[in-house]
Amino acid sequence: MNLKWHLLSRIAIAAVLCLSAMSYYALQRSAKQVNALVDASADSLARQLDYQLLMERSGYPSAAGFPDFELWKQTSRVPGLCVGFEAPDGRVVRHVCTGAALAAAPWPVWFDVLYRHGFGAEPVGRREVGLNSASKGTVVVEAGAELTVARAWATLTDLAELSALTVLTISGLVYLAVGRALRPAGDVAAGLARLARGELDYRLPEYALLEWRLIGAAINRLADSQQRLLSERQRLAARLLQVQEDERRHLARELHDDFGQALAAINAVNAAIAQTARRDCPELLAETERIARYTRGLHEGLRGLTTRLRPAELDELGLAAALDGLVQSWQRPAANHTRYALKIDGDCRLLSADAATAIYRLVQEGINNIAKHSGAGLAEICLTIAERAELTISDDGCAEGLPFADGPGIGLVGMRERVTALGGRFELVVRQPRGLRVRVSLPLPEQAVE
C-alpha cells in the first residue's frame, strides 16, 4: 500500500469513529428533544383542560364536552403525538393522535431495534387535571414511532450524508495534495536506480518542499562522493594497467632480445657442429638433430610467451591485425574444437592506445575463458567503432547461468576492472537457450568523436 492510500485509509477510519460518536450524540439529543416535546405538550394540554374546567364551572361549558382536544389538534403540528384522558378510575375517556399512520416504516428494522434498545421505548408524559385539588383525571401524552424513531432516523441520515460528503471532499483534497507532494518520490527512485546502474553524473533537481530538498541534496552529495571515489579508482586502475602493460612490453622485449639471440647463437653453433660431424664423426648427427629440435621448441615457446606478454602486431600493425592474428592462432585444429569468427566494423585507429590495448586483452581473456570452460562450438567476436567502441564476445557453450560466482578465478573481475578504468560499461548476460555474451562499451577520444 502506498502512502496516499495509507493516509486515506486512516482518514476513513477516523471519519467512521467520529461519525459513530457524532451519531450517538445526535440520537441522544433527538431523544431528549422528543422527551421535552412530550413534557411541554402534556403541560400545555393540562393547562387547556384546567381552563375548560374553570369555564365550565363559570357556566360556559364546551360544546363538545369535557375534555375537548379540538384546540390542541388545531395548534399542534407535530405528527406522531397521541394524547388521551384517563378518568380517576383509569378508564380512557378520549384518545386522539396527530398525523396519519405510516403504512410502512421508512427506516430499517435493525435501526428500530437498536434505537429502542439504546434509548428506550416511546416517551410518555402524564399530568393531573382538576380544580381546587379535586382531580378530574389524567392527561396522557405519548410519542409514537412516527415521532421518535423517524426523527432519529432523519437526523442520522442527514448526519451521514453530510459526513460522507465531507469525508469524500477531504479525501479527494488529501489525495491530490499528497500526490502532488509525493510526486518527487518517483524522481528520487528513478535517480537512485540510475546511480545504481553507474550513472554517477546524474543529479536530482532542487525541489520546492524542504524535506524533498534535503533528501535530494543528501543524495547528490552521496553521488558526488561516489563519483570522486570512482574517478580516483579509475585513475589508479588505469595507472596500474599502464604499468602492467609497460612491464609486459619490457619483458617481451628482453625475452626477444636476450633469449632470442641466445637461441639463435645455439642454432648457429649446432649447425656448425652438425657440419663438422658429417665430415669427421657421423655418430654425432643424431645429437645435433636433437639439439636443433629442442631449440626450435624453445623458440616457439618463447614466441608464444612474448606474444601473450605483448603482441608485436599491436604496436607495429595495429589492433585489427593483432586481433586477427590472435583469432587465427586459436583456429588451429590442434588448439581446440571451437570455431572462432571475428568481425570488425569501423576504424580501429580512432581508438586510444589504452583502449586498443584493453580491447585486445579483453578478447584475449574472453577467448581463453571460452576455450577453458564453455565447450562451445562457435564463438563470435564483434567490434564496432562508431560513437563508442562496442565489443561483443558470445559463445554457444554449456553455460545456463552466470558463471564463476564461487570460482577462484579473476578473469571476469579483471575484465570488468579494465573496462571500468577506462570509463566504460561491462555487461555479462546468459544467451538463450545457453551460452554467454560479454558486452563492453568504451568511450572514444573527444577528437575522434568530433
Provide a quick synopsis of the model.
This protein is an alpha+beta fold. Helices cover 60% and strands 15% of the residues.
Proportion of residues in extended strands: 5-15%
What's the helical proportion of residues?
55-70%
Unreliable stretches (pLDDT < 50, length at least 5) are 405-409
**Tally of extended strands?**
9
Number of helices: 12
Largest sheet: 5 strands, mixed
Distance between the termini: 50 Å
> What strand order characterises the main sheet?
5-6-7-9-8
Morphology: rod-shaped
Structural overview:
- The protein has about 450 residues and is an alpha+beta fold.
- Mean pLDDT is about 80; it is low at about 405-410.
- Helix content is about 60%, strand content about 15%.
- The chain is built from twelve helices and nine strands.
- The strands form two sheets. The protein has a five-stranded mixed beta sheet, covered by helices on one side. It has a four-stranded antiparallel beta sheet with strand order 2-1-4-3, with helices on one face.
- Among the domains are: about 5-180, no CATH class; about 320-450, Histidine kinase-like ATPase, C-terminal domain (Heat Shock Protein 90, 2-Layer Sandwich).
- Helix 6 (about 210-280) runs antiparallel to helix 7 (about 285-310) and helix 9 runs parallel beside helix 10 (about 355-375).
- Strand 5 (about 340-345), helix 10 and strand 6 (about 380-385) form a beta-alpha-beta unit.
- It is rod-shaped.
- The longest helix has about 70 residues, at about 210-280.
Which key terms come to mind for this protein?
alpha+beta; four-stranded antiparallel sheet; five-stranded mixed sheet; Heat Shock Protein 90; 450 residues
